[in-house]
Amino acid sequence: MDTGDTAWVLTSAALVLLMTPGLAFFYGGMVRTKSVLNMMMMSFSSLGIVTVLWVIYGYSLAFGDDLGGGLVGDPSQFFGLTGLMSEDSIVATIPSLAFVGFQAVFAIITVALISGAIADRAKFGAWCVFTVVWATIVYFPVAHWVFAFDGTTAGEDSVGGWIANKLLAIDFAGGTAVHINAGAAGLALALVLGKRVGWPKEPFRPHNLPFVMLGAGLLWFGWFGFNAGSALGANTLAAVAWVNTIAATAAALIGWLLVERFRDGHPTSLGAASGVVAGLVAITPAASSVSPIGSVIIGVLAGVFCALAVGLKYKLGYDDSLDVVGVHLIGGLWGTLAIGLFATSTSPAGVDGLFFGGGIDQLWRQAVGAFAVLAYSFILTLIIGFAIQKTIGFRLDEESEVEGIDGREHAESAYDSSTGGGSTRPVVAAKKTAESEVPA
Predict the structure, then answer these.
(1) Quick check: helix, strand or coil at residue 354?
(2) pTM for the full model?
């Protein structure tokens, strides 16, 4: 056990945890004033629900010894995190519980990401039910496929997931398990719930762009824990991932703004924030396998591809409210496939892609892993979404949607002007005082 590695992973876990409140600001600023609290609550509810599931059985499903075919871990092996508090229980060079905590925050934000696709129109209770079911039968198994390596988390003779150990596709920090997974699920739920009332004829402009920028900044800050923390140590791999992360993200920001400048005539703050997220998404799977120059190329193209992809919803007719498909699905696919093109054996991953003399060997592996996760997540999410819609109802009724989801679902308003500009006096008392000042 290494104390420096342990400190770095615990710090990284805290950074990744911050990303979910950051996502709440990012998404919350993008919706209208009558929806901001509900949008933020969908992220915060993930913090509560997914954490409890992770402790009870989620970690065991993801990182327990494989039950067959590399598909899912043994849910009873670490049920309730049994046996992981011992000083002898380690993963790589860190305590097992440090690894448990680090992976928990990945599970949390993956679920939260999906919520942006169905902003303004989903019942909060139905969303909570969806969170439980989707995390259990989609995220936990996919995390096993991608992140559970043979002989690591479940004992020296344990078997892990099929993508990591049989296919040998590279996904350093979650391009498939997190972003393709969430993006495909977002598309499926957008189809299940249908279009928002008035979309696309009415404008659905962000109500608070400073919130969006703040959220993007928090996501960028936390993402260094997401990527560099995935090295599971304070080492060269972490440093490579850190530099690749900042390089790709900066390039993506520029790429997105260039598209806006030439297409629309104006680079926007929303575009800058979205470009940041697109770059972060794209470099996540590739952070260990490409050079800094490769990261810049991946990043700038991610900005271009995602900026163009967000317009597909208008052409194809699906209402992905906050562009989860355009940014996370497209960005995740690009970053995962780009490994097969730009990977270099001089990187810690030690693999050459097509442009570095490696042929298509790594490219086809990346493609199989990416599209397998896409198909699994999309199909299962369709089934889950339709089941919830047909039983307890997933879509908010039209009257409540028009009136405002915050008031109907949470009995709150993000911007309450009833206090008369911030006065702390009760309304009735203020009225009596005003009346007493009227001359007889």
Answers:
(1) helix
(2) 0.93
